[in-house]
Structures are given as structure tokens and as C-alpha cells.
Amino acid sequence: MAVRFRFARTLCLALVLGTVGLAPAALAQQVEPPGKQKKLPEAPSKLPKVDRSKNLDFLFGALKAAPDEASAKHVEARIWAIWLQTPSDTAALLMSRAKSAVDAKKIDVAIKLLDSVIKLRPDYIEAWNRRATLYYMQNDYGRSLADIQQVLIREPRHFGALAGLGMIMQEVGDERRALEAYRKALAVNPHLEKIPDQVKALTEKVEGRDI
Q1: What is the pLDDT of residues 51-80, one digit of tens each?
Q2: Cα–Cα distance between 161 and 22 in angstroms, integer?
Q3: pTM here?
Q4: Mind giving me the DSSP string for 33-76?
Q5: Rounded distance, CA 166 to CA 160, Å?
Q6: Which is nearest to 112 in space by CA: 96, 129, 94, 126?
Q7: Cβ proximity of 75 and 59 under 8 Å
Q8: What is the C-alpha separation between 33 and 30, in angstroms, rounded?
Q9: Is the dihedral angle over the CA atoms 140, 146, 150, 153 positive or is it negative?
Q10: Alpha-carbon torsion 120, 132, 97, 43, what sign?
Q11: Per residue in 158-175, pLDDT tens?
């Protein structure tokens, strides 16, 4: 029975990987993540107030051109603030309750609340992104990847989702696809923490050292 469940989970993950354009090259090598609590990249706890009409294209350009880490973090926070702006009072209330449920370690309740937000406003990127994080924390990589796909369909520059995609690919043993996702994340946001080290390590493993 356990073997059948493991095969079904692997098959589900393979199908999702296909939908995001990634070949499931190393699913047979899937490993369980460390026991510590896991999170995909998400917004900082404190965000500035921003104009809803602020041009994201301008901010992404400023992020790439940022002269130092402090400037980059300021721009990054403004981008997250725009992504997090809720499209309705009802969605805002549901998102708040979902956060409270996560804080209380009631992950299943939080997921159901995010289900409601997505049904109400399927265009709201952060609901998909938050749910992807919760599925990831539950080791449900198939559903997490499906939600990451929805984020990237709506915002291909979502560096948090791209970095999260890289983390999942790395955990299932597909280091080449992990490297690809991390590189895409850095192309959008060159100032992501820890990702450059991952790219360096994976480049040496996947492509070999420079001669």
C-alpha cells in the first residue's frame, strides 16, 4: 500500500512538472526534506505603503539597477507591497484569518481559507503564493508546484515563486531544473539572499568546474 501511495505521489508530481515545462528527470531520487519547519520565500514582515497604480515595470528596473543591498531591499519591499495589496475587503479578511491560522499552526484551516480567496479572486497572486508555501510545508510538492505555476502565469517575474520552484526541484533531486529556476530568479532580482550560493554550488555539480 505504501509503495502504491509513493508511486501515485511521484506520478502526480511528474504531471505537474510537465505543466510548468520542466522534465521530471530525477523524481526517482526524491528525498524527504529536513525536519525543521520549511518556508518558500515570502514577503518581509514590514512593508511600506505604496500607490496601487505604481508601475511594477519601473520597480523591477530599479531592482536590477540598485547600487547596494539596502537600496535593493527597499525596492524589493515595494514590489512585495504591491503584490500583497488585497483586491477586496472580503479577500483581505480571509487572508488575515489565514495568517492567524498559520500562526496557530492550523495549516489545514489556513489552506481552506486561501481556497476561498482564490475562488473569490483567482487573479490575486499572493493567495496562490501563500497556498504554495503551505503545501510545501506539508511536503505536498505536487500541489505546491501547481500553485507556483499559477503565480508565474500571472507574474513571470515573481522572484519568490521562482526561488521556491528551485527549492522544490533541488529537494526532489532535479538539480539541473533547480539551477534553471534559481538563475531565472536572480535574473529578476540579483539581490536575493542565499540564492547566489546555491547557483554557484549547483553550477559546479551540474555543469562542472571552469577549466
Answers
A1: 654 689 999 999 999 999 999 999 999 999
A2: 15
A3: 0.77
A4: PPSS--------S------TT--HHHHHHHHHH-SSHHHHHHHH
A5: 10
A6: 94
A7: yes
A8: 9
A9: positive
A10: negative
A11: 999 999 999 999 999 999
